[in-house]
Amino acid sequence: MFPAYAHLSAYDRHKKLINDYLTIYGKSVSSFKRDTSRDKTDYDVIRENHKFLWDQEKDVPDTWGSRLAKKYYDKLFKEYCICDLTYYKYNKIALRWRTEKEVVVGKGQFECGSKTCKEKEDLRSWELNFGYEEHGEKKNALVKLRLCPECSIKLNYRSQKREVKRKKSLKRLDTNSGSSNDVPTISSNPESDNKAETDSISAEIQNNENTDTNESNIWKEKPAEDVEKTREKEFEEYLADLFM
């Protein structure tokens, strides 16, 4: 330690050495700054390695960046997409998958899937062939969107997309067939009627005996143990009910 620096604190000694260095060698303070032009955040790494669709067999992540992008991709929900219709007049539509927060609030399914639209009424489902370029390679993917009427017009501005309609679960009953079934029929063979009635009574007695046997067996069985559901299991069941 030089005697001239002995009375200085660590910080003052540091400033003294730096000033002496700049004075002797004629350099500026900027020469001490680290080059940050190649610095990357996690967001930058994900953007470089992100893929709209990952093939479980072919796309095997072999670098740290690709593994990080794959981990982010696995957390996305791929039932419906979120779209950006800013350049819809040029037939340029941006699409991405939904995040967990958007699924919880219903964005993209119970609320219009356009990024800036909050409409929740009269939503329509659309299916489109999304063509995009990824890492210098052109790809296609079939995706679904839920949009309000105004955003649906923007989506179909250049070309008509296929609308997905929910199938009706209940079928209309035919009134003619129903009325004909209400009319009672008269049998012309009394003996066959008696035999059929006897067979039906025997079958009913047999069913009652089987029911009594099953009810008695219930009391002999051991009570089923209640298995506490994990938080992940409850969340999976919630999402399954949500997408039905």
What key phrases describe this protein's structure?
two-stranded antiparallel ribbon; 5 strands; 41% helix; alpha+beta; three-stranded antiparallel β-sheet; 244 residues
Give an overview in words.
Residues 164-231 are annotated as: Disordered. Residues 218-231 have a biased composition (Basic and acidic residues). GO terms for molecular function: phosphatase activity. The chain has helices at 10-25, 42-49, 64-74, 100-105, 149-155, 175-182, 190-220, 231-242, and strands at 77-87, 92-98, 124-134, 137-147, 162-164. With 244 residues, the protein is an alpha+beta fold. The longest helix has 31 residues, at 190-220. The chain starts with 9 loop residues before the first helix and ends with a helix. Mean pLDDT is 78; it is low at 177-188.
Helix content: 40-55%
- First and last CA, distance: 76 Å
Order of strands, main sheet, comes to: 4-3-5
Order of helices and strands: HHHEEHEEHEHHH
Structural class: alpha+beta
Gross morphology: elongated
The low-pLDDT segments are: 177-188
* Mean pLDDT metric: 78
* Number of separate strands: 5
GO molecular function, one term: phosphatase activity
